[in-house]
Amino acid sequence: MPVEVLAGLNVTDETSYHAYRDGIKAILEQYGAHFTHDFKVAETVVNTSDAPINRIMTLRYPDMDALNTMSQDEAYLSVRGQYFDKGVKDTTIIAMYDVE
After folding, report:
1. Are 36 and 58 in contact (CB under 8 A)?
2. Is 61 in a helix, a strand, or coil?
3. Contact call for residues 53 and 41 (beta carbons, < 8 A)
4. Burial 1-18 (b: 16+ CB within 10 A, else e)
5. For 21-78, what is each residue's pLDDT tens digit?
6. What is the pTM of this model?
């Protein structure tokens, strides 16, 4: 069953974040996954995490196995280390849910 991850990010370097998104697109496709939404947040009214959130994104995977396998993929980890870790200060996983 498809699964979607809803995450709140604190993006501090837009250039690096965009390079991350561009860099993982082909990797996501190899696992049957893709970005479904990516929003810039103008104002956060309620946030129960300690980390600020200025970006909301969702990623959809065909199943949990694809998500877990991709998250350990060497190519993904390389792109993440090069761009995501530089461009995103905080990550808050808001929800993970099955998609019908």
Report:
1. yes
2. strand
3. yes
4. eebbbbbbbbbeeeebbe
5. 999 999 999 999 999 999 999 888 899 998 999 999 999 999 999 999 999 999 999 9
6. 0.89
